[in-house]
Design brief:
Blueprint (H helix, E strand, L loop, with lengths): L8 E3 L10 E2 L2 H10 L7 E5 L5 E10 L2 E11 L7 E5 L4 H13 L2 E8 L10 H15 L6 E2 L3 E2 H6 L6 E5 L9 H5 L6 E5 L7 H9 L3 E4 L8 H15 L4
Parallel strand pairs: 1-3, 6-7, 6-11, 7-8, 7-9, 10-11, 10-12
Antiparallel strand pairs: 2-5, 3-4, 4-5
């Protein structure tokens, strides 16, 4: 079944199954009861990334305790997307946007990557996870992407599965049109690599271009911000060789 976008959606950590109430945390209580003014018996769509999506009724057991009563499974749990999304962290607001759009567009794994020009000294994994959940709630996504610990670019490439094609956006590419390059690639597992606000260094670009599992693509003749490049790249890749 297709997602019902008219009902409020909520991510929960508890298991979801018919006949067994699922407890929520204080943030959910505040949001549903105080912000949305929902009451006993009102229904939402609940999901946890494991048990599919459920139509569930609110059960206020006390002022500080709220449970969800699963009534009917509206969608079964799909297989998680196989796309690994590798990105150099950006400043907070732009990073939030980048993560949310990656989830909307089918990223299955979020991999922060530290490059030579990365300017963010501390990477908040919990904030990335929170943005991924928020995007999933708003866009009907059921599979919450896995968020990995940050890794340096060198380590990422050393441990990369050579059977998985890694596509990186290279502003120094010889052509402006990425479509012929993407259309020439065989279907298979994919990874996407987005650089930092200052771009990849010349050394990093040389290293990437020498690897047999890496494909460099351009993103047109204009210089794009890193967060804009992320959305453009994912749209192109998903539409040509991805799951669209």
């Amino acid at each position: 079944m297709r997602a019902n976008y008219k009902m409020q959606r909520l991510y929960v950590t508890a298991g979801l199954t018919a006949g067994k109430r699922a407890e929520t945390g204080p943030e959910a209580i505040n949001y549903l009861a105080n912000v949305l003014r929902m009451k006993e018996g009102d229904e939402i769509l609940a999901f946890n990334g494991r048990d599919g999506e459920w139509r569930a009724a609110l059960r206020f057991e006390s002022k500080k305790k709220l449970s969800l009563e699963p009534l009917e499974q509206t969608r079964e749990q799909p297989a998680p997307p196989d796309l690994i999304y590798c990105f150099a962290p950006l400043k907070q607001g732009r990073l939030d946007y980048l993560v949310q759009k990656a989830v909307e567009m089918g990223a299955g794994t979020l991999q922060p990557v530290v490059t030579q020009h990365t300017q963010v000294p501390r990477i908040g994994i919990e904030r990335i996870e929170a943005n991924a959940i928020e995007a999933a709630e708003q866009c009907g996504v059921l599979a919450i992407p896995q968020t990995r610990e940050p890794v340096k670019l060198e380590k990422l490439l050393e441990g990369w599965d050579g059977n998985r094609r890694l596509i990186f956006c290279d502003e120094g590419h010889e052509t402006y049109n990425p479509l012929p390059l993407l259309q020439s690639l065989p279907r298979g597992p994919l990874g996407v690599l987005i650089g930092p606000e200052g771009g990849f260094s010349d050394h990093e670009r040389q290293v990437l271009r020498k690897l047999p599992f890496v494909t460099a693509i351009p993103l047109g003749q204009r210089i794009l911000r890193a967060d804009t490049a992320a959305v453009a790249a994912l749209a192109l890749i998903q539409a040509t060789i991805g799951d669209w």
